[in-house]
Amino acid sequence: MSTTSGERPSMLEPPVLIARKRDGHELDADQLRALVGAYLAGDVDDAQMAALLMAGVIRGFSHREAVALTDVLVASGDTVDLSALSGPTVDKHSTGGVGDTTTLVVGPLLAAAGAQVAKLSGRGLGHTGGTLDKLEAIPGFRVDLAPDQMREQVMRVGLAVAAATQDLVPADKRLYALRDVTATVADPALIASSVMSKKLAGGAEHILLDVKTGDGAFMQEVDAAVELAELCVDIGEARQRRTGALVTDMSQPLGDGVGNAIEVAVAIETLRGERHGRLRELCLELTGACLELTGQTPADGRTHAAELLDSGAALEKFREFVEAQGGDTRVADEPWDVLPTAPVIRDWNPGAGVVEAFACRRLGELAGSLGAGRQRAADTIDPAVGLDVLVRVGDRLDGGQPAVRVHAADEAGAERVMAELPEVVRVTDEGATPPPLVHARVGVAAG
Ligand code: URA
């Protein structure tokens, strides 16, 4: 922090603020603004900011601090103006999971229902996939839309998905990178302010959070996920956005595939009505909840979503969306005629038994290690590789069927993953009860 302009109130000095947090006090909006502003200006260094974050993680940040931090993060960069759009603007956001390809189904469903979805998405990092990487598996698909292009497409089609620019919430990018290397990511207030700052800057009037819980999620315990969901909803409502959240299961993969082309194919087959199961169910729940936020009743919303899926209206929206962003629309008819395929495909059969549990995070990491994900932001991905997940918790296997199909770039990669799968998909003689798909709802009624 600069001291050149004369005396500054001592309560804004970084060491004083860090000590206050260390001692369990609340920081007010001015103090948080001063600290983050000084950090971005280079007057507070990484060590000081890391000390503050760790003090907050240990002592706890209050709801008021989370709201104030969100405002500070939003104010650090550009915001998207969607006021020119005519329909209800909606954003659905997942906190990240394995085989979580809901955006590719929910986006077209919402657009088919008359909502307007201008979605700024991210890339996969660590064990979770990224929507942009998945869409780029479709030949020709472009995610680098300028703001005007994006608005025009949303007006025409109802849906656009693009990469967030560097200028959207730059303070979050700096803080997230620091949290990532200082064990300060998994804190409800820090996650809520990080997620909600990007949602508020994205401009939608209605925001639905899909907060994941379980082994493949940031929040492994349901209670912590509910706390995060409540905090996100409080922040959105405090800033005049209709906000709701579902807390949903991530103790096993959501869809039947993990990987980029594989997840696109699973999403299209779901839109075509060819796949049933947990991904379809959650997409209907999420769409219903979004439509409830825009004013429809939950029963109407979910029923309407099912009609739009079964009639093919959502598939047609998907086709329009792919065409608008330069992608090969034949993907909507025969995904595997167009999507890249891996040269090596191997089936893993665990023998007879009952699927008891998944090491879900590790399964995501294994897909990443085949080339479907990144360890560092600069890594390139292989769109063709990944895993088909052919079983779910509670399934009884007779020994005659594969549980996982590995799509690899080479034999060595396939063998390495196959060798680990017995630890990742646990098959025993005991019975197992499938976990619920939706654990809790915040700000939206039961579907
Ligand atoms: N996703 C985000 O955008 N931020 C977090 O802090 C965690 C997950």
Class from secondary-structure proportions: alpha/beta
Shape: globular
Mean pLDDT: 93
> From the alpha-carbon coordinates, what is the Rg to the nearest angstrom?
22 Å
Report the helical percentage.
40-55%
Individual helix count: 17
In what range is the share of β-strand residues? 5-15%
List how many beta strands DSSP finds. Answer: 13
Largest sheet: 4 strands, mixed
The unique ligands bound to this protein are: uracil
In the predicted model, the low-confidence regions spanning at least 5 consecutive residues are: 1-6
CATH class annotation of the largest domain: Alpha Beta
> Please, what is the CATH homologous superfamily of the largest domain?
Nucleoside phosphorylase/phosphoribosyltransferase catalytic domain
Task: Please tell me the total number of domains.
Answer: 3
- Secondary-structure element series: HHHHEHEHHEHHEHEEHHHHHEEHEEEHEE
For the record, the CATH architecture of the largest domain stands as 3-Layer(aba) Sandwich
Strand order of the largest sheet: 1-4-5-13
The N- to C-terminal Cα distance equals 50 Å
CATH topology tier name of the largest domain: Pyrimidine Nucleoside Phosphorylase, Chain A, domain 2
Oligomer: single chain
